[in-house]
Amino acid sequence: MLAGPYATMLLADLGAEVIKVEPPGGEISRQVSDSYFASLNRNKRSVCLDLRSAEGQTKLGELVSDSHALLVNMKPSAIKKLGLTYQHLRRHNEQIVCVALTGYGLHGGDDPAFDYVIQAATGVAAMTGDPDGPPTLPGYSAADNSTGLTAALGLLAQIVSGRGGQVDVCLRDVMLSQLNYRAAAYLNDGTAPKRYPFGAHSYYVPAQLFPTADGYLALFITHDGFWRSFAAEAGVTGFATMAQRAAAREDVLTAVTAALAGDTAVNWERRLTLLGIPAAAVRSLPEALEATPDLVVQAGDFRLVASPIKIDGFAPEYRPAPVFQAAQSS
Fold first, then answer.
1. Is the pLDDT of residue 330 over 80?
2. Less packed terminus of the chain by CB within 10 Å, N or C?
3. Which distant-in-sequence residues (6+ apart) come within 8 Å of 305 by Cβ?
4. Which residues, including other chains, have CB under 8 Å from residue 204's CB and lie 6 or more apart?
5. Of 59, 53, 68, which is closest to residue 21 (Cα–Cα)?
6. Mean pLDDT score of the chain, rounded to an integer?
């Protein structure tokens, strides 16, 4: 519903001709809401095929013979049963790239694997939230979106190779990959991740959310130069090196919290960013969208967030998501 459509929409935004294959009755995400479907399927065409029928399989073969790639976001048994693998489709096109986007891999079984389930299974939920509270899920579909990006990358890499073949991308593996330094700390040093208040970073201090006179501020001090500039602006003394700040985490956080209480989050953001210090007031999504009107585009009847990929000399055309047509025509 999200990972595969997001991957192919990114490609469509960049100029690829993307044909969405929908079953009789339409793709299930059409039932969520019109804006949900539009947000993941702009710039695509659509064709209705019953892949369980001989006629549907014939039409699929025709599409494959004239395409660079096929991306499928279904459970492994359905992908294999419907013949949506490279091994099955290479007879139509030896150069076709077949991407299987699944929960646990093309050969990993059919266990249900929606975004929240994967975040729970890979440790993301366990390391998110207040240390004295329950595990927490991020407020958006981090696993689905990340896997969509990864699938698009794998698809393009295999096309560039010129070999064709099967690409296997799954939500579980992508999320574990994105836990890179957390996983490495455990695998090599035996250090399991722990939660800190206000989402504090495990290495850098201070790097977390802080309460201010009005609102919360995200502050991310990663090296001593940032600290010197911040300390001078905020009137904090001591803790000159990264090692000293890590060793005296609680003392540093107490001093920084007291200093930041003297002004609002928005004012601190303005003051610190002028000094080149990474800081931002916590905003709601509506506030963030209002602050970035250049990233809001019109696609048919819907206002949507623009493609995040900018290429010199290329301006995406934002066309509406396809209307479902039951007849087998594109």
1. no
2. C
3. 39, 289, 295, 296, 297
4. 220, 221, 222, 242, 246
5. 59
6. 96
Task: Identify the CATH number of the domain defined by range 197-282.
Answer: 3.30.1540.10
Q: Give yes or no for residue 329 having a pLDDT over 60.
A: no
Tokens of 75: 């459970």
Q: Give dist(CA 229, CA 284) in Å, integer.
A: 28
Q: What does DSSP say about strands 97-102 and 69-72: parallel, antiparallel, or unpaired?
A: parallel
Tokens 């959310």 locate to 209
**Domain 2-181 belongs in CATH node 3.40.50.10540:** yes
Task: From the candidates 13, 144, 168, 173, give the one annotated as an active-site residue.
Answer: 144
Helix (H, G, I), strand (E, B) or coil at 56: helix
pTM for this structure? 0.93
Q: Is 173 a catalytic site residue?
A: no
Domain ranges of the chain: 2-181, 197-282
Dump strand ranges (E) for the chain: 18-22, 44-48, 69-72, 97-102, 165-170, 207-211, 216-220, 279-281, 296-299, 302-305
Residue with the two structure tokens 């060793």? 247
Strands 296-299 and 302-305: antiparallel
CA atoms within 13 A on the CB side of 241: 3
